[in-house]
Amino acid sequence: MWKSTIVILVLATGIALWFRTSSVIDVPKLPETFWGPEENKGAPQNVRTFTLSIPDLVIDDLNARLANRRKVVPSLENAGWTYGINTTFLEDVIKYWRTTYNWNKRERLLNKYHQYMTNIQGLDIHFYHVKPEVPSDRPNLKVLPLLILHGWPGSVVEFQKIIALLTKPHPDRDFVFEVIAPSLPGYGFSQAAVRPGLGAAQMSVIFKNLMLRLGFNKFYVQGGDWGAIISSNLASLFPDNIIGVHTNMCVVPFMPGFLWIAIGSVFPSLVVDKEHYSKMYPLSYHMTRIIEESGYMHLQASKPDTAGAAVGASPEGLAAYILEKFSTWTNDEYKYRPDGGLLEKFTLDELLDNIMLYWVTNSITTSFRLYAENFNKTNMATRIDELPVNVPSACAVFPHELVYTPESIIRTRYTNLIQYNHLPHGGHFAAFEEPLLLANDIFEFVSKTEDIKKKADTKDTPSMEKKIKESTRT
After folding, report:
1. In 100-223, where does DSSP find H-type helix?
2. What is the mean pLDDT of residues 393-413?
3. How many CB atoms lie within 10 A of CB 82?
4. Residue 221 in contact with residue 246, Cβ under 8 Å?
């Protein structure tokens, strides 16, 4: 009986979806909106150096708050992290933060790569710009620009290890990357919008303009979480500028994706390979996890300023809110452990570095607003997330990612998918957790894309040339 019901629902949804998607969606030309305060009008368009330097008064205030904080409510016995963060573990984190964590030392570490600021559309945008050292014995080594984008509740702290891997020449590759890693607007040291409307698509305009300002008319882009959504928007809105897009959280429009997932619950062979069936089904198990892990999203999409005021009011509240995500989004099984499994992939110093960027810039509320801007009616009506991605694309699938999307569904949006790899371990914060795995996957994808481009340049492969041209057509 239940299977018949599902089939009827799937058919009804499919018919409704067909009427919605049968019309071609025009690629919108997004305006280059001025997002900043009035005093930023006429700001110089130059790129200036930036060094992370937090005043001692800010750190002294933080330490005073940690020392005089209110005691947290004890966790339930044997509950692990199933009710949220385990407060016994949180107490240990706070003690370490107050007595052992050395911000001056960590600040120097975060300053090891060159950082810059530039004003784009009224906002000061912070970014790392790291060039590789080309060996003298490899003068023909190509240097390819790569824009890498983080998400929430992360920051550019996530990229500290992978930057070194991406900018290091490999003996078996004829290219290396020049990495540009910005902080999203409203995150860390990138200025937040002062008026509504700055969603993921609008951020893609800012980052396209950032790359153009740096002299890169064509570039590769990579991202996870919000970075994946912005990267895909860049590829669909500005295909002439994007050589290829690599993400570790490939996303498709909700309705088509859910339709195929529902079909797969009845006819799994139509949707997912047998060896990966358990990553999607039984549907009730995976939907339960999504519901369990997405409560924050509703709060941040509906009342970001209220949630931000509460979370940002104290350092221990901020730490609890963020650390919980780094536990269960890294591996759902970690919620049964007293320490949340946090020290399996990260050190406390690394986790606190990320929290510090939110604290010292007071940016947790402005980071929340991205959810409200992206999920409001006005933005959803544009259907930008339904635009096809026609440039060469790759999806790195980590086994503990929040949602598994099979290749068959990914191809409904990424029409030129040339790489879809299942990685052996890792979760949502791939660059932070498994920098070597992710870096190797990026190198592999770009190598394939560059080979396709080479073949397209020869007269012997006109069909390949046509494929490349079609993949970059607006």
Report:
1. 103-110, 160-166, 200-213
2. 93
3. 13
4. yes
Over 50: is that where the pLDDT of 474 sits? no
DSSP, res 133: -
Sort strands 219-223 and 393-397 into parallel, antiparallel or unpaired: unpaired
Task: Using the Cα atoms of residue 82, residue 87, residue 93 and residue 97 in order, give the sign of their dihedral.
Answer: positive
Query: What integer is the mean pLDDT of 265-269?
Result: 65
Q: Report how far residue 92's alpha carbon sits from residue 339's, in angstroms, rounded to the nearest whole number.
A: 10
Mean pLDDT of the chain: 89
Exposed e or buried b per residue across 437-453, where buried means at least 16 C-beta atoms within 10 angstroms of its C-beta? bbbbbbbbbbbebbebe
Rg of the chain taking only CA atoms, in angstroms? 23
Amino acid at 292: E
Other CB atoms closer than 10 Å to residue 295's CB: what's the count? 10
- Looking at the DSSP bridge assignments, the partners of residue 247 are 223, 395
Give the Cα separation of 274 and 122 in Å (integer).
51
The two structure tokens encoding residue 230: 């912005």
- Which residue numbers are catalytic? 225, 371, 428
Give the pLDDT confidence score for residue 318 in this predicted structure: 98
Predicted TM-score (pTM) of this structure: 0.90
How many other C-beta atoms are found inside a 10 Å radius of the C-beta of residue 224? Answer: 27
Furthest-apart CA atoms within the chain: distance in Å = 73
Instruction: Please give the pLDDT value at position 127.
Output: 98
381 with 360: CB under 8 angstroms?
no
Strands 417-422 and 47-50: unpaired
Convert the pLDDT of each residue in 313-343 to its tens digit.
999 999 999 999 999 999 999 999 999 999 9
Contact 431, 445 (CB under 8 A): no
Tokens (6 digits) for 131: 């060039």
Question: Strand 175-182 to strand 219-223: parallel, antiparallel, or no bridges (unpaired)?
Answer: unpaired
